[in-house]
């Protein structure tokens, strides 16, 4: 069905901005804490290794795209698993994208509720984020690309603001190296890969991108490196700022770090960063909602695009509201997400990659010609 | 549900036929019958002059108020004397046997010469031209640069453009719009530089306009713009020929209107509203500095009041320690919440601005000063508005007037309201969402099918946020997809490397 779409084209640079924006979500704010819990002071090393592995996954995605020219994620699923299994997997991705979207929405709501607006009904925040994401998605791929490209400026601004963290940083905190056990490393790598897992979305965008496979590969590797270095930068700043003893007890170390930083014109930079973070929350959320919309378009034979988005967003909103600020419900959402993330971001991509050697279509076409 | 459905009453109205599409009405050999028909068609208007020449065998018919008596004398009577009454020997005449064509020529300001016993009518162009002198437009003054401006005469306006682009590829396509008014519009572009798809798009849009009267450029733009419900202007309007020509050479289309000094330019980007001809006439460093000031003023104009409200209402901790007590002192005794203060002050400023426009200029400026000073001072001493809020709103409206384009500045002032409301409900998060929506909206917008708000990329930066020296601006804007992407015959790239 994706072939019936009028092929909207996005440029290579737009692809890379989409990739950046869909990866940088709310998670990064407490990535350092999570990594430290798992790996200790070696967290940043496992981040680097995990980043390298995520690049391998990105390369696999590009390879899959090369093997099935012009096919989106769901066509690829069908081509490689067969029709029935492929549809089941497609539905699985629908659920997965929805769950990630729900997770992004609830974590943003929780974050703002904790830091800025404790009195505001959380539904208001959900609705605002949802409306802006819907407004972006309903414009189609080109608008998504443009919006995401524009907001990439924010990443730069925030990186500059993080420099305040270096004022009281002690790099001795990064030492000693290599203390953690192997299992801790693996755990850290897993966390890293999850936080870089939006490479799954690449299959939605790659077929609509201009440029050769070589160019795409180069761009995506570069983009992934940028994201990895941004993560590394935040992790190192917060490690160096807080040290092992403190960081365990701080849930959003980056924000706390900026809270104490003093500047001449304004105090409390954390509030600004948090407001700017709305952009990342929105773009990442919009990316997954777009994925869900695409997936939903494959299940029933509905061609009304907006209907698909509304269905997806009502589900997201309802579950998020159910989760809301309720510890228990949120816990169960996150647990569920953890379970399925493993399948949809690691196993299925690997399986697709392996199958692509058997069922590839590009060679066949060449042979036919 | 048919019970509730009421049949809409369709009013009956006669179809108006445009003058240039009237079916022909053959003239007769009888002078009297012809004149009668003309009188009847022109509804016996008193300005229809019928001059019977001696002998009552010939008549000269014209509309008195739009013809020039001097020209009648020079072009008709003097030659007639020389040729001893033989009209067919006079040059510069048109002939027709269609009386409906005669009516429309009369309306254009031509004189009609009829002869008893002949069905041929002769036309002479004796139109009276009423034009205003070429002056610098009041609303777009520049310090350096040419000081001429468009006026109400479309011919003179085209003249001003033709004189600046002396090349055969400058294309001018005239059309008329409006069944009654038949307003003339001219689409002007440089063939080979403009994107032909855009021209086609614009032409079809103009063709689809169906209206009795087209009176202004603003109304026209509402018929053909991409998003009528948007707050942002989608056509750059200017009265400056130099600005128009610069845009033409970038690959855009200019639309001129008869009887209107405004020229519309499309397709535009958001940043075009922040460019002024001044920028290209000063040192590039200075121009860049001014561009940056304008960009800053854009951000200031839409966010400053909401920022202040958010700080006072939600995030007091943002204010540095030493400033807290002065701020607190200023707002402590104010009875109203900040949002009411802000709205009140904005309305006051708008009142002063609007009254200043309508009044004659000597009084207008006085009202501005008196209104501003007196009301500003009194409103603070009365305790209605804090003096910080006065500063904030005054700065905001100053910033909104920095925009070189009038419409954009109006849009900006309107945009502050939703942001004020959002920030008073949600603080900084409200502002963040408000700006997010505005920016997404900008990204979604299109101007004649081309994107309106291209995200800033390095190459576009050169003539948007800053202005680099001319020799570095070698390409036309990417947005236009011009068939001639480079500005010169030399195909060197931006950094001078071949």
Structure commentary:
The complex is a heterodimer of chains A (369) and B (498). By secondary structure, chain A is an all-alpha fold. Chain A has a single domain, classed as Up-down Bundle (Amino acid/polyamine transporter I). Chain A has 15 helices and no strands. Chain A has helices spanning 12-23, 31-39, 43-67, 73-81, 83-115, 122-137, 141-161, 182-195, 202-205, 213-247, 253-260, 269-298, 305-323, 327-359, 362-368. In chain A, α1 (12-23) runs parallel beside α10 (213-247). Residues 1-6 of chain A have low confidence and may be disordered. Chain B has three domains: 19-125, no CATH class; 154-268, no CATH class; 280-451, no CATH class. By secondary structure, chain B is α+β, with helices and mostly antiparallel strands. Chain B has a five-stranded antiparallel β-sheet. In chain B, a hairpin with a 2-residue loop joins β11 (446-447) and β12. Chain B is 44% helix and 12% strand. Chain B contains 15 helices and twelve strands. In chain B, α4 (154-164) packs across α7, α8 packs parallel to α13 and α12 (387-401) packs antiparallel against α13 (406-426). Chain B has helices at residues 31-41, 69-82, 99-108, 154-164, 196-207, 217-224, 241-250, 284-313, 321-332, 338-358, 361-381, 387-401, 406-426, 428-444, 458-461, and strands at 48-52, 58-63, 94-96, 110-115, 121-125, 170-177, 183-190, 236-238, 253-257, 260-266, 446-447, 450-451. At the A-B interface, α6, α7 and α12 of A face α14 of B.
